[in-house]
Records
---
Amino acid sequence: MRLAHLHLPHTTPFSRVSHLQQTLTTRLLTHKKLASPGSISSQEPSNPSATLSKTPPSPPDPTIITFTPNPVYTTGRRDLPPSNTSPPSTTNPILSLPPALEPIRSLFTPDGTKPAKAEYHPTLRGGQTTYHGPGQMVAYTILDLKRLGLTPRCHIRVLENSVIDLLKSYGVEGFTTEDPGVWVNPVSGSRSASGSALQPRKITAVGVHLRRNISSFGIGLNVTDEPMWFFKQIVACGLEGKEATSLQGVGVPGLEVGDVAAAFVEKFVSRVNADFACGENSLGEKIDEVYQVREEDLLNSV
Amino acid sequence: MSSVARAIRPFASRVLSQKPLASACQVSPAFRFPRGTRSFSQSPLSQLKKYTESHEWIELADGGKTAKIGITEYAAHSLGDVVFVELPEVDLEIVAGEPVGAVESVKSASDVLSPVAGKVIKGNSILEDKAKTINESPEGEGWIAEIEVADVAELDALLDEAAYKETIDA
C-alpha cells in the first residue's frame, strides 16, 4: 500500500484542512460502503458526493496531512453539548462557546481594528480542548485502520510511538504517562510558572476520530515556544496543573516545521510497518512507499 | 410495512419465551440471503439480535417495535477503557448507517452507527455516569440507545451472530 503525504508549507486556515480531511474521509467511507455487501450500506448514501463516484477498483490510498494552522482552539466531543452526532454546524460558533473556552472569549472576538487572536473549531475527535497554531507541526492521518491491521488503541500507540521515535532522533526522551499524549521532562534549571519544575510537560497532544475504522485527526507537536502563550490561556486537554513545552523548550531550537513533518512521516511509516506486536491481528498491509501529493491532486482525484 | 411488523410480533414473543433455544437454531454462516430478499422463512430467531460489520448490535424487544443498540464485545475490547459515551437525543430521527452516538476511549472517539432507521426513545443514562459499563457489559447493561424501529424488515439485511463472527475472524 502507498501512503500519500500532503504537506501544507504555509500557515493555513484550519477550515481548509478540515475540508480536505472531510473529503478524504468521505472517499474512504464511500469505498468501504460499496465494498462491503454484508454491511448496513443498503441505505442511500447520505453524502451527495458518494452517489457520484463509482466503485473504485482498489481502496483510496491512506493520506497523512502535515500542516500548521492559524491560531485555533479545537474542542473534542466531550466538550460539546450532546447534540453533536452530526458534523459541527457551519453557523457562527463564536456565539456558543464550550465552558472550557468561555473564560477566553475575548480571544475570539475582533477588537476594534485588530482581528481576533484565535479561531474556535468544534470537532468530533477524541480528547478535550487543545490549541494548534504557528510553531506547531500538526499531523492528521486519514486511513482505514482495518487495512493497516490496527485496533483503535493500537493506532493511538503508533501515533505516540512515532512521536517518541522522532523526539529521540533529536536527542529528546519522550514518554507516555497515565494521561494521553507524549510527555518530556523539562530541562534542568528551566523556570516554571507553578513551581512544578520536576513535573513532565506535554509536548504532543493526540486526538482521533473513527467512523467504520476510518481514522481522522491525529497529533499536534510543539516545535517552538510560540504556542505556549495560547496553552497557558486554557486548561489543555482537561489536565489541570500540567504544563506544555516544545522541542525548543527542551533545548532543540531552530527546527523547521517542514523538516519535522517529513521526519514524523518517516517514523510513522516505520512504526506502522514494525508494530504488529501491539495488534491482535497481524494481517495489516504494510506501507511500501510514501509519495508527495498536492492539495489539488487530492481534491481532483475523485 | 406495518403488516411486516405485525407478522413478526408473534414470532418474537414466542421466541423470547424460550430464549435458551436461540443458540441452537443459528442459521449457517454461509447461508445468507441477497439484499432485498425479505424471507421470513430464513429463521425468525436470527431476527432478534443482529450485528453490523462496524461492530454494532441491535436487539428487538418483545413486541418487535423497539430495539436496543450497542457495540459488540469485540468492539468494546478493541477500543479499550471507555471514558465517555455520547448519547443520542430523545426523538432524534436516525438513518441506518449514520451515527446514533459515540464511544470515546483513550483519545479515540468512535462513532456508533445505527444498524437501522428509526427514532430514539432514550439513551442509556447509566453511561453518563459510568462510561465503563460499556467495557463491563457491552451487550447487556452497556446498551447505548433504545429506538423505535421504522421497518423491522431492515434487520433482515444485517448479519446474524455467526456471520458477524466470521467478519471478525476474517
---
Amino acid sequence: MIIASYIYIAVRVSIPVLLGITGAIFNEKAGNTNLGIEGMMYMGAFAGFYTAVATNSVILALIAACLFGAFGALIYAFATVTLRTNQVVAGLSLTIFGQGIARFLGNTLSGAKGESVRIPDAVTQKVNWKILGLKDIPFLGRALFGYDMIIYLSIVLVVIAYFYINKSKTGLNLRAVGENPAAADAAGINVSLYKYVHICIGGAFCGLAGAYIGVVYLTTWGNNMIAGKGWIAVALVIFASWNPLKAIYSSLLFGFTSLIALRFQDSPISPYLLEMLPYLLTVIILIITSVKMKKENQQPASCGVNYFREER
Amino acid sequence: MRLPFHIVKRPYMKTYQQVIVRLLAVLTAFAVTSILMIILKKNPGRVLMALLYEPVKNGYFLVQTIKLAVVLLIISLGIGLAFKMKFWNIGAEGQIILGGIGASYLGLFHNDWPIYILLPVMLVASFVTGGLYGLIPAYFKARYNTNETLFTLMLNYIALSILLFLQYGPWKGENAMRPEFDNFKKNALLPSLASSKPWSDLHIGWIISLLLVVIVYIYMNHTKSGYEISVVGESVNTARYAGMNVRWITMRTMMLSAGICGIAGFVQVSGNLKKLSVNVAGGLGFTAIIIAWLSKLNPVVMIVASFLFSVMSKGAGFLEYQNISPAASEMIQGIILFCVLGAEFFVNYKIVRTHREVAQK
C-alpha cells in the first residue's frame, strides 16, 4: 500500500514538469530555445487560479490558463521571430515578466489584509472526479486510477503531441523549420507562421502546467508556486532528447527524487540537503547527456539563432 | 504575398540615435505600465511616483537605494564578463550565496582578527568561493559543451539548499528561538566614510564597486585577455584559428565573472545585511542580468542602469502603502526589458518601402 501512495505522490509532482517539457519541446522543434517556461507557468497558474475562484469551473480555468500561457509565448514570439532579439534574453525577460504579472495580479486576489485565497471546494471535487470504484482495487488501484482527471488529460495531450511532431506532415514541416529554416523557407514553408503557432502551443502547455500546480496541486495562492519547475523542465528536455514520450519517464524520475526530499525528512541527513536532490540530479543528467551525446539525439540545429531571410 | 515594405539590415547607427531609441523604449514601457494600471483602476501617476521618486526623496531613502545599486552594479559587472563571451551565466544568485558564505565563514569564526586584515581576507575569500562555484559549469562547458544556462541555474537552487543547511545546522546562531545566522561583529562590517546620519549608513561598498568598474573596463577594453573574451564571444572558430586556447579562456573568464558575483555576496553580508541570511541573493542575480544587457555590457553605462533599477526595486516597497503588490516592480522591469529589446530591432534593422519595379521582378 505504501508503495502505491509513493507512486501517487511522485506522479502528481511530475505532471507539471511533464507538461513543461512538452511545451519546451514545441519551442525547440521550431528552433527557439525558450527560457520563459517558468514565466509562462506562473502566468498559467494565475489565470487558472483566478478563473477557478471566479467561475467555479474547471474547464474554463484550464482554458484560461492555456490562453494566458500562450499570450506570454506570443510576446516572446513577437520579440524573437519578428524583432529577432536574442532568444536567451527574450526568454529571461518573459520569465521575469510572467513571474511579476502573476504575483502582482495574484496578490490583488487576496485583498488588502493579505489573507490566503483557496480554490473553492466545489472545484476541487470536480477535479477529483475518479473512475468509479477502480481506485479501490487493492495495491495498484490508487497508483493507476486514483488521480484527478487533469493528469489523464495531460498524458493524452502529451501522447498527441508526440504523434503530431513525429508522425504528421505539419510535424515534419515543423522539424524542418527547427533544423534548417532556410531550406524550409525554400521549400515553401511559412517559417514565421510555423514558429509563431508552435511557440504559442508550447506556451499553452506551460500554462496548463501552471494551472495544474495552482488549481489541483497546491490549491492555495502563493508567490513561489512554481518554484523552479519550469527551469527543471527546460533542463529535462535534453534528457528526454526532444521526444514527448521520453519526457514521461524523465519527469517521473524528477517526481521520485522530489519524493525522497518530501518523505524522508526524519532521516539523519538534513532535509535541506535532501531538497537539493532534484536539482543535483538535473545537473548530473545534463553532464551525462553532454558527455555521451549521440548524433540522432541532438537539439534542433537552428535553436538559438533567429532566422532572417535576407541574411544568407 | 507582396508587402509594400520590407526589412533590411542597418549597417550603422550613431551613438546619440541609439541612446534616443533606448530612452524612447523606456518611455514606451512606462506608457504600457500606465495603461495597465488604468485598466486595473490604479492611479498610474502615483504608481510611477512611488517607483521613481519616493526612493530618492530624502537622504535616508537615497542611502538605501545607493546601497542596493552598489550590489547590483557589482553583480552586473560580473555577469557582463561572461555575457561578453556569450556564456549565459544565469547562476549569479548561487555565486552570490557562495561568496556570502565564504566571507561569512571568516566574519563569524575569525572575527577576532583586526579589521584591516579581516575585511580584505573576507573579500578575497568571497571572490574565491564564488569563482570556484562558477568554475564547475565552466569546466563542463569547456570540456563537454554542457549547456551552461541550465547548469548555472540549477546551481542556484543547490546553493540555496547549502545556505539553508548551514542556517538550520552547523552555523545556527545564538538565538535559540529562531534559526538565524549571528550578526557580524563590528570588525567584520564595512566601515563608512561619513560620521553623521544618514550618510554614516553608507558603507564603503560603493568604492569597491567603482574600483571594479574601472578594473573591468580596462580589462575588457585594454588587455589581451579581455580582447580574447570578445573574440570567443563573436566566434569560437575564429578564436581557434587564431590559436587561442578557448577552453582556458572560458574557464578563466567564468572564474572572474563568478568571483565578482561572489564579491557582491561579501558586500551584501558585510555591508547591507550585516549578517548572512537567506535573502543574500534574493533575485538580485536576475535583475543584474537585465542591467548588464540593457547597458550593452558597458561597465560605465551599468552605473546608471544599476541606479535606475535600484530605484525601481526600492520603489516596490512604497507601492505597498497604496495597496499595490510590490511584484508590480518586477512586472514593470519585465516590460522595460521587452521594450528595450524590441527597440534593438530599430537599431539593427530598418524598414524600407519596396519599389514597384523590384516587387514585380
